[in-house]
Design a protein that fits this description.
The chain has about 375 residues and is mostly beta strands. About 5% of the residues lie in helices and about 20% in strands. About 30% of the residues are buried. The protein binds copper (II) ion.
């Protein structure tokens, strides 16, 4: 019997005797600096501020504390109740749609929180019939970054580092065709981290990642035309290694999102809340930057409702990790490159498994409709 097994047997023997006299450990109090775990020992929670209600007193029997009239004797009202904090609904304006290529358009579309929905600005000169392609196409380079955005005037009233809700947002990168355009805001992108810090976003070649506009919730809006294809090069620019762990609870027991396809020890049932069955390998508590786990920073673009060839659907197995990620699995098994997007001047070559980018072709051979593109990674 090796040492590990011996210790386990000892532990189980102690456990059997201990279980009769103790319950499971108490759930820990919410600590917003910690990432919630799907299994524990930290509880799942959402950081929604609850309102603080200071009780008042009943109108006649004034020694009776109350928070509503029903807390008072019949016929009396509850007076002096105050409510503070919480998240108020319907306080903020909706972000407006705007075209960054038109001066002043997005400034005018801002709501009271500074939010707006920028259109993606197409590159119409790279993929053209004149250049030998079957159709003129709108071409975009879209990246995914981690970004904080203030979502409600009830949240985080004072500006400062780490303010806003942490999100993963799509953003339009500049291309050679629009690098010198007057409307290009040349935003040097940063990834916002759960601890409140920010780190510069680099392209796979180590140069700064430059966006045409700041990241915005819901991402750049792509206005397409029936029968005119949209072509996209997608860059996964999320943080790498343990920084790429998702800041939401992840059910890593779904095959393909936790342990990789390799021999790993079977989880042992110790009957405790934090044993390997109830706190499996590759959950937030144990993942770290363990290369034996599928990464949480896998991402893709799925065009929801699009009539797209399967290679460009962005299926659950068409995800990629950021370039240079430490993983044996840098892309899903169904990732394919759009054949005629290879070897095009100014267009990134995304044919390598670990290049952190992939290409998409949307036919738009369908009637006008509102669609959305979103992540679709397995797990
Ligand atoms: Cu969808």
């Amino acid at each position: 019997m090796n040492r590990l097994k011996f210790v386990i047997v000892i532990c189980m023997a102690m456990l059997v005797s201990a279980l009769w006299v103790i319950g499971p450990p108490l759930a820990q109090a919410v600590d917003e600096k910690k990432i919630p775990h799907y299994y524990g020992p930290f509880p799942n929670w959402a950081l929604s501020q609850l309102p603080v209600i200071t009780p008042g007193a009943c109108s006649v029997t004034t020694t009776t504390a109350c928070s509503t009239d029903t807390g008072c004797p019949s016929g009396e009202t509850c007076l002096g109740v105050t409510v503070s904090g919480g998240i108020k609904k319907f306080q903020d304006g909706l972000p407006g749609l705007c075209d960054p290529a038109i001066a002043g358009s997005c400034e005018g579309a801002k709501n009271n929180l500074g939010q707006y929905l920028p259109l993606a600005v197409p590159d119409t000169t790279t993929f053209t019939k004149a250049a030998g392609f079957a159709d003129d196409a709108d071409y975009y380079v879209i990246a995914l970054v981690q970004h904080r955005e203030r979502m409600s005037s009830s949240l985080h009233p004072s500006p400062g580092p780490g303010v806003g809700t942490l999100l993963r947002e799509y953003v339009q990168l500049q291309t050679p065709a629009n690098a010198a355009a007057s409307w290009n805001k040349h935003i040097a992108l940063k990834n916002d981290m759960p601890d409140g810090t920010s780190v510069p976003v680099l392209m796979p070649d180590g140069t700064p990642a430059i966006a045409v506009d700041d990241p915005h919730y819901l991402g750049p809006v792509i206005a397409a035309t029936k029968d005119k294809p949209v072509r996209i090069v997608f860059y996964n620019l999320l943080p790498k290694d343990s920084g790429g762990n998702l800041f939401l609870p992840v059910d890593s027991t779904l095959m393909g999102s936790g342990m990789g396809p390799m021999s790993m020890m079977d989880p042992m049932n110790m009957g405790t809340v934090d044993d390997m069955v109830r706190n499996p390998a590759c959950t937030e508590a144990t993942k770290g930057d363990n290369p034996s786990c599928f990464k949480d920073n896998r991402a893709t673009i799925h065009l929801h409702g699009g009539i797209s060839p399967w290679i460009s659907d962005g299926t659950p197995h068409q995800w990629i990790t950021p370039a240079n990620e430490t993983t044996p699995w840098p892309e899903g098994v169904s990732v394919r490159t759009v054949p005629d997007m290879l070897g095009v001047p100014g267009v990134p070559n995304c044919s390598a498994a670990d290049d952190g980018c992939m290409s998409f072709y949307y036919t738009n051979q369908q009637s006008a409709r509102m669609m959305f593109y979103h992540d679709h990674s397995w797990g």
